[in-house]
Amino acid sequence: MKINENFQNLKDSYLFSTIAKKTKGQDVIRLGIGDVTLPLAPSVITALNKAVLEMKDQATFKGYGEEQGYLFLRQAILDYYLEKEVTLTVDEIFVSDGAKSDLGNILDLFSADNTVLIPDPVYPVYVDTNLMAGRKIVYLDGNIDNNFLPLPDDGIKADIIYLCSPNNPTGAVYDKSGLKTWVDYALANDAVILFDSAYEIFVRDEELPTSIYQIDGAKKCAIEFCSLSKTAGFTGTRCGYTVVPRELNRGGFILNDLWLRRQTTKFNGVPYIVQRGAEAVFTSDGLKEIKANINRYRDNAETITKTLSQLGIWYTGGTNAPYIWLKCPGQMTSWEFFDYLLEKEGIVGTPGSGFGANGEGFFRLSAFGNKEDTIKAMEKFKKIF
After folding, report:
1. 334-345 vs 371-384: helix crossing angle, rounded to 10
2. CA distance 94 to 72
3. Contact 140, 117 (CB under 8 A)
4. Three-state helix/strand/coil letters over 209-278
5. How far is it, in rounded angstroms, from Cα 225 to Cα 235?
6. Is the Cβ–Cβ distance between 313 and 329 less than 8 Å?
7. Cα separations (Å) of 162 from 155, 247, 255?
């Protein structure tokens, strides 16, 4: 019997576990971890309660559901995409327990011999799940010069490409031209783009894409992942969805068929009750309510960015994303800046080095805190900087 020795290639501790240990038992202002702080929308709560009551009556009780998710939710998601002028079919939509799970699980479809292209800095899950599988990873530099929005290098041949826009951790957002460049690269190299759009609802600039399928040719080369965790505060409720177009073929296989087969074998599905709550997110009342919450997070982001601008600290993000990516003052390293903020004023952010080598010297702040804490933290910033 042999253990998967690829686990030895992982760091000893997950980034946010390390932060939790450093701050355990302390009274701090948390502007680090990307958890939401506002409650679920009233429409969602009403739908959840109604679904719970259905489960006590034999006539409305639900057992095992449809493998891809209940049709009522997939139809609601399909209609949501229509508003983006993206046409899908319900069998291209798969309901899941969140983008993080699917971004790792989708790798079951691909050989371990594939080369993976990942921009750096990056959400750690992209890296760790491929290290576990023993795949070769090639990193593409994100930096100040390219506004942390790297474009393809024609000298690199990749099979699997991870893109996140709006980006976690940098808050940077690709425009249509940038995504078109990536789509063209993927088509030319017979590659597959894994596109994480978990923060799409934060985009307020109507010229910026919120789905990769708004780019011509993307259905032939891209799988899109989205989560209701940040869209609707489902971090504790757990629901998301993945879109696998029928047009996406590789190696003689329709990837949609492979993903359906994988999910029916290895995934138990999302509870009926949760899916009814998720359906309410996409109603007109639900969208109105969750956008009101999003605006409160946007206000927090504006408080942070205004303060950084006043202090002359370089940053990106915060306008079309809930994250602000700043350059650590005084040439401090990411963890030095983390410790400085924690010890000096009890403020917790996320060290950029935890997101890759190119994150060293940078720091992520989150707009998901409450308003009072965000204002208080920025007053402390003004005092110490």
Report:
1. 100
2. 12
3. yes
4. CCCHHHCCCHHHCEEEEEEHHHHHCCCCCCCEEEECCCCCEECCEEHHHHHHHHHHHHCCCCCHHHHHHH
5. 15
6. yes
7. 17, 19, 17
Compute the distance between CA of residue 202 and CA of residue 80 in angstroms, rounded to an integer: 15
Torsion of CA 159, 163, 169, 175, to 10 degrees: 150
In order of 151, 193, 219, 225, 256, the CA distances from 185 in angstroms are 9, 10, 14, 20, 22
Q: Answer yes or no: pTM beyond 0.85.
A: yes
Q: What is the pLDDT along the chain (385 residues), one digit of tens a residue?
A: 999 999 999 887 667 788 888 898 889 999 987 899 999 999 999 999 999 999 999 999 999 998 899 999 999 999 999 999 999 999 999 999 999 999 999 999 999 999 999 999 999 899 999 999 999 999 999 999 999 999 999 999 999 999 999 999 999 999 999 999 999 999 999 999 999 999 999 999 999 999 999 999 999 999 999 999 999 999 999 999 999 999 999 999 999 999 999 999 999 999 999 999 999 999 999 999 999 999 999 999 999 999 999 999 999 999 999 999 999 999 999 999 999 999 999 999 999 999 999 999 999 999 999 999 999 999 999 999 9
Q: Which amino acid is at 110?
A: F
